[in-house]
Amino acid sequence: MKDIGAMIYTEKSCKDFVSCVGSVEPIPGGGSVAAYVGALGAALSTMVASLTVGKKKFIAVEAEMEKNIQEIYKIQNELMELVQQDIDNFEPLAKLYKMKSKDPEENKKISEAKQKALYDACLVPMEIIRKCGRAIELSQEFAVKGNKVVIADSGSSAVLCKAAMQAASFNIYINTNMMKDKELANKINGECTQRIIYYGALADSVFGYTTNTLINTVIETGNAI
């Protein structure tokens, strides 16, 4: 059983993390899993960039790849941090759901605290969406300009980051659905939806480009890896 509030889930093995997700406890939940998937997607792009930099064939894009590899690696690490941050942000809301009182004033305070916690629970999923959106943009760069031997990983990066964004969006919509401040809820939903539509389409474009390249292009391996 999970020790809520004390355990650092990113220090667990992959096997143990998956086991925790599948347990009866509410954490790690969809937000943490979305961040983890996004980090894996970003890591694939980091690998593509690493296998592009230093190759004579790609000397023309060396400087650009060097810059991009630093950024995608940063996103990769930030998404891993968001795995735990989502757990930490959701914990107060989970506790509030269990709190009940016969005192009307106390119940009012619980309700107000719950509204604040609902907003806080949206913060990490939105950051996941923002970072995965940028990761998709970079995956396009790597797919088009990077080492074609690992172009499949660029495509996979975009697909995984899109899935992470979509999963994170559910964790926003479920919380805004219960927010009493509908103006704020609509503002949060608006940004979320716009990013999902835009970057989802971009990820699909990367997927299409990658698929077309793999089907119709002869890729010479040589000393590319």
Notes on the protein architecture:
Helix 2 (30-50) packs parallel to helix 4 (104-145), helix 2 packs antiparallel against helix 5 and helix 4 (104-145) packs parallel to helix 6 (182-216). The chain has helices at residues 14-21, 30-50, 62-98, 104-145, 151-176, 182-216. The N and C termini lie far apart (43 Å). 75% of the residues lie in helices and 0% in strands. The protein is an all-alpha fold and 225 residues long.
Nutshell version of this structure?
With 225 residues, the protein is mainly alpha-helical.
The end-to-end distance, rounded to whole angstroms, is: 43 Å
Q: Tell me roughly what share of residues is in helical segments.
A: over 70%
Q: Mean pLDDT, as a whole number?
A: 88
Unreliable stretches (pLDDT < 50, length at least 5) are 1-5
- Spatial extent as radius of gyration: 20 Å
Beta-strand portion reads under 5%
Number of helices: 6
Class computed from helices, strands and strand pairing: mainly alpha
The total count of strands amounts to 0
Index terms:
mainly alpha; 6 helices; about 0% strand
SSE arrangement:
Blueprint lengths: L13 H8 L8 H21 L11 H37 L5 H42 L5 H26 L5 H35 L9
Helix pairs in contact: 2-3, 2-4, 2-5, 3-4, 4-5, 4-6, 5-6
